[in-house]
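Q: Here's a chain of 145 amino acids. Please give me its 3D structure as tokens.
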Amino acid sequence: MSPVLTRPRRRSGRALVPRDVVLIAVAGVLGISVVLGALTALRGPDLVERLRVANQTPYLLDVEVTGGDDGWLELGPVSPGESHDFDGVVDQGGRWVFHVTTGPYDGGEFSMTRAELERARWQVTIPLVVQSRLEAGGAVPHPRS
């Protein structure tokens, strides 16, 4: 047998970036991704800065709102003949459904689209049909009216 001559392998040059630095960079990118993902997941709901409710009825009204599936959000009372601004209201999406009561009397529901609310500059006027429902149900006007 004859000996086989092979060329010695060339030694590879040093890595341009040390392995530790690459691992630290990858860990940093993963860490930032996790933090950004967590912030997105924990972000609260979108808010409407101000929603004004105008009550032209003689009743002290309690108003609540829903967008459909998430339950009712109580806005609060609105005095007869007055308007009240509710700040930082959770955005209810494309359709806002309002429910109105005075004491034990139900004034029913009415709805507005987001586009209607935007056109009205986020002012809701209680419709006269709510007053009619309350009168028909036997509600007594607020004493200050």
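Q: Can you summarize the key feature?
A: The longest strand covers residues 105-113.
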